Amino acid sequence: KAGVTQTPRYLIKTRGQQVTLSCSPISGHRSVSWYQQTPGQGLQFLFEYFSETQRNKGNFPGRFSGRQFSNSRSEMNVSTLELGDSALYLCASSLEPGSGEQYFGPGTRLTVT
Amino acid sequence: AQSVSQHNHHVILSEAASLELGCNYSYGGTVNLFWYVQYPGQHLQLLLKYFSGDPLVKGIKGFEAEFIKSKFSFNLRKPSVQWSDTAEYFCAVKSFQKLVFGTGTRLLVSP
Question: B3 in contact with A at a CB cutoff of 8 Å?
Answer without folding.
Answer: no
